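Let us work through a complete example step by step.
Step 1: write down the sequence.
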Amino acid sequence: MQTVVCMRWGDRFPVDYVNRLFRGVMRNVARPTRFIVFTDDPFGLDEGVEARAIPPIKLPETGLGGSPWRKLALWSPQIGLEGDVLFLDLDVVVVGGLDPFFDYEPGKLAIVRDWNAGETGNSSVMRFPAGGAPHLVARFEADPLEKRRLHSNEQVYLCRESGLPLAFWPREWAPGFKAMMLPRFPFNLIANVTLPEEARVVVFTGHPRPHEALRGEWPARGWKKIYKRVRSVAWLESHWR
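Step 2: predict the structure and record it as tokens.
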């Protein structure tokens, strides 16, 4: 049984994002697969989505409470999972087969190579051995603000301090929507975003989110509206549903 997990807390993403991700996963696996969401609100989930409480993690009352640092809870000794687990951020879109993510470099921390920082990982698509680095939580809880000072975000922290062997996905498997696919200005004003043939998971970071890209919208302020533009992305109708 393959295990795919995601996390949702607060109101940054509606429950619809969990359901669309679940459907995308199940359309793109050939092996038996379970889908788990760690969440503080299970209301509105599709049948077949397994909801679990987010493992407890002590976050400062100010500064990090709503940030991606909460994703460190995945490394909690109380995670209640075994074997290799595939984690997907809510704002990714599954567009191809996921089974190879479980076969690639088994036992390692497999992660997207960050498009802007060569040897750092992006945890939007991450496979990890459950329970493989519980010290990440303990060290963070001992001095969270110091960890934040030393590491710009949780994915940098886990890459540097997990102690696990690190593997980067093949570049074509998890392309960044803005970093790799969106035509550069001014071509983004007239050219469509095409889907690479070998893509399996498209990673959206910040805006536009999938629902915005589908509509051809990109929230921006001031003069940034001039170049932060995207044409309606037609292939999302098939894959983000």
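Step 3: interpret the result. The two ends are 24 Å apart (CA to CA).
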